[in-house]
Amino acid sequence: MVDELRRRLLLAGLAAPFAAPLASHGQGLSSRPVRIILGQTAATTPDVLARIIAPRMQEKWKQPFVVENRGGAGGAIGVDAIVKSAPDGYVFGIAGLGALAVDVILNDKLPYDPFRDIAPISGLIQSPFILAAPLSFSGNSIADVIALAKAKPGSLSIGHGGNGTAMHLSAQLFNHMAGLELPLVPYRGTGPVTQDVLAGHIPLGITDPPSALAQIEGKRIKALAISTRARFFALPDVPTFAESGLAGYESMGWFGFVAPAGTPPAMIARLNGAIVAALHEPAVFERIHLLGAEPMPGTPEEFGRFIRSEYEKWGKVIAESGAKGR
């Protein structure tokens, strides 16, 4: 029942922008479209949520909102497109931990500086990561993984969502805290990781609830641990990494809204108000929960401080673990 409800809501979220024309001009500041640029591909969690929120903003502003997918490079392509846009309030977008706080450290060739080139608007969601395994995997816990890795060196590897992403750092943090050196295999997002875990092509994968909940609930893959500090509402029977012997392990993926630096404060405030209002709608809240995530609305100042704190946190992890980027 939960799977079917989630499927219907996802489809509703994806279909919403196309169910009625987006060109409603009326009382808006202009008939010019407002562009929402994403560093993720279609049908990913940020894409689904953007297509849920955009019609609400369009209805309120009486002008068209257009979602543009600029996926690739762990979200960096999308952020680069945002920061190179005119700061006139007609372009903003969604970016996450990897592109705003992790890849900044791992990739010295990034074409932007998130602390100089973006204007934070609001947080969007946060979601944990899951260490998953095929049903054929002989272990059922973190302790089993560590024991098997030490008994049979070279037998295990961990798939993750791409170098420089939060999933990459989560896998690296596991290696570091468990005293292992398991090879880390980059994929193009958590969806392909989950599919290869399901098919048994890789023994372990760092994935996320939007990609893996249905497979876990359907008992088609195993969830060995979850990266939250306390147990996660959507998977209450899955132990945390910390409960499993890695005290202090915590890793949360997140996304938020940003605009090009120099966007007028009045426009940032206007965008923030519309986004926060949408995230507080019960229907939107329910859809976010069904995706296995938590909404994280806030002020531009709060989101800016949060980005800085995540940069500092993962900078320490990278320094201590020796993680490498691209």
Q: What's this, in brief?
A:
The protein is an alpha/beta fold. 44% of the residues lie in helices and 18% in strands.
Key terms for this structure?
single chain, D-Maltodextrin-Binding Protein, domain 2, 44% helix, disordered N terminus, 6-stranded mixed β-sheet, 18% strand, globular, 5-stranded mixed β-sheet, alpha/beta, 326 residues
In words, what does this structure look like?
Helix 7 packs across helix 12. This protein starts with a helix and ends in a 5-residue tail after the last helix. The protein has helices at 2-19, 45-61, 76-83, 97-106, 114-117, 142-151, 166-178, 190-199, 209-217, 265-279, 282-290, 300-321; strands at 34-38, 65-69, 91-96, 118-128, 130-134, 158-160, 184-186, 204-207, 221-226, 252-260, 294-295. It is α/β, with parallel strands linked by helices and 326 residues long. The chain has twelve helices and eleven strands. Helix content is 44%, strand content 18%. The protein has a six-stranded mixed β-sheet with strand order 2-1-3-10-4-11. The chain has a five-stranded mixed β-sheet with strand order 7-6-8-5-9, sandwiched between helices.
